[in-house]
Structures are given as structure tokens and as C-alpha cells.
């Protein structure tokens, strides 16, 4: 036996007097096949409830309850209705398991407690989770427990073996229920003290209702306590009356019988409650019982006390309203108990937190946010935090719709708290922990005093670690995010850029969106993405919808690469973010092409001045590039200011004869003056002005042309010449055409040098060869410019890494290095032939580079992608083929030439000869014994290693047949099948992949200088001079990255917000018209109709009761009228005779007898 004195050191003072050495706790083992175990404690009737609560938590290690359901009902054997059994099994126990509730019962294996124990047993047998245990605590008097002497004389630390008695109760004694896990056994007190277990349960329920527990988020709630009444005898009324005085809410199951039905019948009309009405109800509900009038009067008083607290009484009939779960009914009862005494929002917070914890947004909408309470933003901050941490997007939406101001709510401190609530086993937690550890080690390196052990407990993440994680994912798109420049923070030498945590977030929706994406909470992230900035009047600082969706796609793809065990649904989430960007851009493109094009190239202020095209490139969203609007924009960029669809022959004519540019051979767009002045910005209502601002480049050449145009006739002609020249040679299609033409010329020169004009020293190198060297030198300069002299602000190592990531750049590097090696060997006389060989191989690499040029073709581009995918199949095929080649080649070499040790011949016979045999070149003169004759060939002399060994020649022939069968029939057909599967799989997406490649090709040639190698050297010199003169970045990027004027930029953002609202409206409309939503609405309407029918039946019963009452009143009035008529006749006869009435006493007695009607005569008045 364990002494329960030391449960908790901080127990209240009153507990020490009642918790003596004679009381103790122990473990009980029930007999039978199950060998179930439980814990019990013997307590006096006056034990403090705080001691019991501490015992349950500290000594028995029960989790703190989030709800306490105290069952009150019949404690004698009774037949349980089938629907009530389902309520206990599927409702009560399931609700207790899902909400973490304690169930308090009478602990005995009789009456209601027995059925509850059976429901707990069935749930434990059906459940496979160890965390799904239901805590059932029984409180009973030792005087009513069968075999209580076993518990009285328990000694030592061993468990008490309690026999399993299937006979049930034996007189007033009943056995303990073996399906309960914990027992509180109350020792009998002094006589006349009443029911000790009931008193203890009342005190324990009141004490628990005053305690707080953390549940459902970052805050705490008072533990809700609810009493559930099932059946019950009239003695239960005193228990209910005592409980309602403690403000304990009650849930009454109508139809369960007993007192529950009495209360259900009387709770709606307490004003008609009278002893006669109560007596009628008791006789109906207890037909076999006989009650005295004094008991009825006493119970009527208790009923009146109970009815005076209608807010604490909730009646629910599961037979008529069976569609609702028990946890829903419990939550409604708790909210109803709160509604009665207050209309302040603070008094509803615990119930609202409970609704958030149970994820019952429907109850919150119908019972809490129904207009009775005025909610302010500060009232909802705590529950908003709980909903965010618990991933309850519906509650977040509900709070925002009912007054929660996200701008006031989200400070950097709360945002940091959200990141600190990340699940420990998630990928985001690992990434933040890694950054936190790197920061700690960096700080530790600044001083030896900081190089200590890491702090205990979970790491306290800061927004600095979050910004570093986002930088790894988004690179330039989150530059400066969560840094001190954004707020009045103070920097210290050891720490960089700490934020003021009390400062409000500059863009709360964006910050919450990023948090939800990093948490992989797609539904909540979609809601934050849909919340447009116009909701708060922040149009100028609102998040850009297309850009935000592309950012999310990039983050999720990067996290999927880092995830060791990525779920199958992760790919769907990536597609959804990309689909959001596609759908929103489609909405914008349908409304206005010019503004949609501006969305692609405008620098987004919310994402560190990056463009949507840049974000799409980072996220590798091929479907976004394949969109018709993006392709139309790329086509516009590709042709520049020339008309799209200009025949290539005309371009070639103008290319070789530049004078044709100034004729009508090529059609250019209209030359309109550029309008960017302040007076033009004020005329944004004009569509022409807006279009000129959206489409104008504002380059130096355009400004120069405009200046020349103002000078007069000669100036206009000069401006025309300059503009036409610039428009033709600056178009990417012209740049591409020039590079293609000059590259063919380069290959022709390379071919001529290799085949005709390649001489060893001292005759060489010739003039054509020197020209080839200079040409390759200009190609090297262009590759250096592409790799290191870009506009991106990053380190050289990072630039080189990005350059190498492109496969065609790798091909260029290989070609250049081979050319350098070949030229070096070519200059050395003894290595001249090696140089020729290297340059010949290099020519093949340069020629293969043409494939990249052909990728722009609409028919050849997809086929190149298919060939690229098939090359992977070839590598897998070569693996299988090499196995058979080596196996067959080594075996035949060992059988035919066992004594030939020349390595070059071993290699030729092991690999080369079997490979040729696949294609039909079979040397039978060296394999077949009938055709081998070594004397005919000088190289195959008798006894030489080259002469085949003819021993076991039949094995060689058999191996040849098998090898040809496997390779020519099996493996070749396998390769064909693999090619067919790859073609079928890639053909559907080849167009998408090609359009993505087309984007990269157009961007490449848009950024290239106008001149092609070798004349590109002039463009490079021009760029160097501009850099030395500090004239800024090249103006050609203005087409792909633009800073719109402030009024126009604000107008475009507002327009995108409106399009996003229209898009979300269409999504909501499609959702409402979907089959699932229609079925849900139909099911809801059926439930409403069923409730209405149930209400009609209830109204019918009420009408019948009213008719009964009216009949009773009519009978009473008729009896009164009859009495008055008799009295009137008597007095008239007495007046006529002028004498005393002889029957006055009898008549008075008759009237007196009608003052109290017979018991049971008045109709029921429920």
C-alpha cells in the first residue's frame, strides 16, 4: 500500500488534515480472462478536492482533462434502449477520446455505470492506438462495494486481486466495474451526513471547473465540467439542484426515462409547475412506484429550484435529433450556460477556445457569432493565435469576418511565436534548427566566452533564422526580409539586424502566407493568398497574387527536394500553387493583354523588386511558360518592334542588305512619341496614355530619337534612320538570325581549316586558321560575359554556379577547353597530330551545339526534347547490354584464345567483336571449326596465340546462338518498347517543355548584344565604355524588368486585386455548383426537414396537451358554474321561504372538497 500523503508538495493546507496514514492507494487486478488492472484510493468523506485532483495528475499521471463529463442516472439495474446504447458507445466514449475528457461515474457494476464501462471496453478493443485511451473514473462509497474487505485489508505494495462476480448486485452491495481505470472509494462517515460520494463529486466538480488547462493552442481555458443525466430516480433531483447552484451545466437526454423525461417535459413551461402537475409526471414516468404527497411537494420545490436556472439545462432528444454528434451537443450546452449571465465577449472566450480545440466552426457560427455579442479585434487575438497554431483555417476566416484585424494582430513578436510553434519532426523545424545552430556557432566564434554548450530545451527560433531559410529558397525574392532596416531596431556588434518584436508587420498577409507555405498548410495558405490587400485599404502595399503563387510554388518544390520521405500528395500541392498562378494570370489576360504583360515584367515591391518571369524561372514552372498569354508576350519580345510573322526570307534580305530596312519590305509598329511627363501621368484615364506607358521602353535611343525629331526636317530624318536601324538590329529574332548565320560561317571556316588549310609548323598556322582562332576568342569573351558580367547582384562563385547549371553552357565549356588543348598541341611539332585529333573532336562538339539553335523551331523543338529523354533510356539499355557483352566476350576469348595475352587484342575480342556481332558481322572463319584454317592466313599460324583453339568449339557456337538471340531479339525489342513508352509519355508534355525552352532561348538572345561573333567584339567594347562612363545597366532589360511610374504601378496592382476577387468569385461559384456541394446541401435540407417534422410532432403533442388543459379548465368552470347555479337556486328558494337553508353545511363541504382536485386529475402541463 502506497501512502498518498506526498502527492504534491504544494497541496492546500486543508488537505493535510484529512490525508492521514490510514488512507492509501493501491492497484487492483480484476479476475477473469482479461486480467484488467486499475488504480484505487480510499479517502474520507471530507477529503479536499484539491488533494484528489493532485493525486490524479501527479501520482496517477493522468493527462489534465480538457472536459469533465459527470454521468448521473439510474444506479439500479434497468434495460438500456438501443439508441441510448449507441449514444454511450459512439457518442460519449468517442467524444471523450477525441476531446481528452474524463468520465465520472458511480464505479459500480450496476445501472448506468455498467453500460458506460461496456462502452469503454468496446472502444478500447476496437481502437489500435495507445493514445486513444478513455479515462473512466469511478467514485463510490466503500459501504456499497462488494468485497470491500479486500480493499480494507490490502497491505504491502502488491496489487489487490478482486474477483469478477458476474452475478451483479447482492442486495445493497455491488461489485466494482472492471472496465473503469481509476476508483475513488469514499469511506463511510458519521451517520446522518447524507450521501458522501455525491457530496465529494459535487466538491470535485466545482474545484475542477475552477482550474485551467492548456488546450488547442498557446493559451489556457478553464476546464469545462458538464453533468449528463440519463434516466434517474426522483432522488436525483436533489443532486441536480445542488449542482445548478454551483453553476454546473446539465445535458438531459430526453427519452432515456425516469427523471430525465420529467425534466424534459417540464423545462419548457416552468410557470405551470405545480404539485399536481409534477405528481402526474411522476406517475407517468414511474407507473410502478407509489409516491406520497409530501414527497411530491418536496420534489416540486426541487424542480422549481432547478427550473430557475434554465440556462444551465439543455434537453436533447437523440431519437428526433440524431444527426448531431454528442460533442456538438455538449459544446452547445456549455455555450448556452455562458449566454445566460453575460453579453460580454470576454465571458465567451473559454467556450470559443473549446470550439477551436474541437474544430467545431459550425457551433461557433451558430451559437457564438450569431450577433448577440459585439466582438472587437483585441478580443479575438488569443483565439486567432490558437487557430493559426492548430491549423484551423475555417476559424481564421470566421474571426476575420467577425472583426479580427490582422494588421493589428500580427506583430513581429507574434510571427516569431508562430515559427517557434513548428512541429519538432517537421522539415521546417530541422531547417530552422540548422540555421539556429549555425548562428550560435558564428556568435561563439566571436568570443571564447560564448563557446559553451548549447542551451537546453527546444531552440528559440528568431525571424533571423526564418529570413535565412527563405533566402535559401527564394534567393533575391526575399532580400532584406525580416531585417532591422524595416523597423527601429538597434544593432549590436554580435548580432545582425534584430527586429523590434512589438512592431506591426508591414505586410501581414504576405508574412502569414509565407508561414503557411513553409508549414505545408495548403488550405490556410490559399486563404491568405486570396485575402486581397484592398480588404484593409493597402492597395499600394498589397501582395501580388501571381507573384505570391509563384513564390509558394518555388518554396514547396525546394522543400520537396529536401524532404527525405516526401508524400505523394506533395506533387499535387505544387501543382495547385502553380495552378493558382495560371488561373489568375488567365483571368488578367482575358481582361487586358497590355496590363497582363505589365504584370509579367513589373518589379514587385512585395518580393524585393523581382518580376513574375524571374520567379517563374526560379520555380521552373513549365506550365506557366506554356500559357498562351506568356507565349504571346514572348512572341512580342521575340519580334521586337517588327510585325510578328515576318517571313524569314525578308529578314535574310535585310540582314545581307541593310538598306532594305528603310523600305516597306519589313513592317514596323507605329512610331508614337514616348509620353512619360508628369502631365501624362495625370491622364491615366486615357487608354492611349496608359498603353504608351506600359509598352514604352524609355531607352536612351528612343530619347535621342525624340530629341532629334524635335529639331525639324533633317532631325526627323535622322531620327527615322536611327530608330529603324535600332529596331531591326535590336530585335531578338534578328540577333538570333545573325548568330545562326555567323555560326554556320564559323563551322564552314572550321571545316575548311581542318580539311584543307591545316599545316604543321613552320608552314602553319595559315591566315584562315588565325581567323578561326580570333573567332573562337570572341566566342570565349561572350561566354565570359554571360557567366560573370550579368545584372544580378551576387558573388562571382554564385554566378559561375548558375552558369554551369545550364547543359548548353557545359557544352560550350567543353568545346572551348578542347579547342585550347588542340591549339596548344598543334603549336608543338611533335604533338601536331594529337592537336589535329583534338580539334577534329572539338569540331564535332561545336556542330552538336546546333541542336540548341534548332530548339526554337516549333516542330523540331519537341522532337529534340523527346530525343533527350530517349538518351536516358539508352544508358539503361547499355547497362543490360554491357552485362551480356562482357559475359559472352570473356567466355569466348577464354575458349578460343586461351594463350593470347596481348591487351589490345583482348579488348578487341572481349568488347569490340561481340558488339559488331549484334549488327551481323560474325567472323565464322575464327569461330566455326569447319571453316577455320590457320595455314591460309599468315597471322593465324598453327601454334600462334592468334590461332583459335578448337577444343569445345560446340560450346562457342551455342554461346553465339544464345548471345544473338538475347541481344538481337530480346534486348533490341526491349529498347524499342522503352522508346515507345517514352515517346507516348513525353509526347503529351513535349509542347509544354518546348515552350519553356523557347522562353529561355528568347531571354538569352534578348540579353545578347546585337552583333554576332566575331563582330561581337565591338559590342563588348561598347559595354566596357558604358561601364567606365557609369551609364548604368543595359537598357535592353527594360522589356523584361520594368519600374512602372508610381500612379500606373498602383493602378496595375489595384487592377490585379480586382481580377483576383473576380477569380475567387468564380472559384466559389464553381464550388457551389459542384456535385459534392449540391449533395451536401441536399443532405442539410433533409436534416432541416427532419427537424421540422420532429418539431411538428412536438407541436402536435403540445396542441393535444393544450386541448387536454382546455378541457380540464372547461370542466372546472362547468363545475363552478353548476355549483353557483345550485347556490343561486338554493338562496332563491330560501329567500322565498324566508328561512335558513338546511343543507348549507353540506353544500359548503361540497365546495370545500373541490379546493384540491383528486391526484392525477389535472392534465399534464409539460
Largest β-sheet summary: 11 strands, mixed
Helix content: 55-70%
Structural class: mainly alpha
Beta percentage is 5-15%
How many β-strand stretches?
13
Q: What are the low-pLDDT stretches, counting only 5+ consecutive residues below 50?
A: 1-22, 448-452, 485-496, 533-541, 672-685, 697-701, 1141-1166
Q: Over the alpha carbons, how many angstroms does the gyration radius reach?
A: 46 Å
pLDDT averaged over residues: 80
Shape: elongated
**C-alpha end-to-end distance:** 53 Å
Task: Describe the protein in words.
This protein is mainly α. Strands 1, 2, 3, 4, 5, 6, 7, 8, 11, 12 and 13 form an 11-stranded mixed beta sheet that branches. α7 (236-245) links the parallel β11 (225-230) and β12. The longest helix is centred in the last third of the chain and has 63 residues, at 1075-1137. The chain is elongated. The model is unreliable at 1-22, 448-452, 485-496, 533-541, 672-685, 697-701 and 1141-1166 (pLDDT under 50).
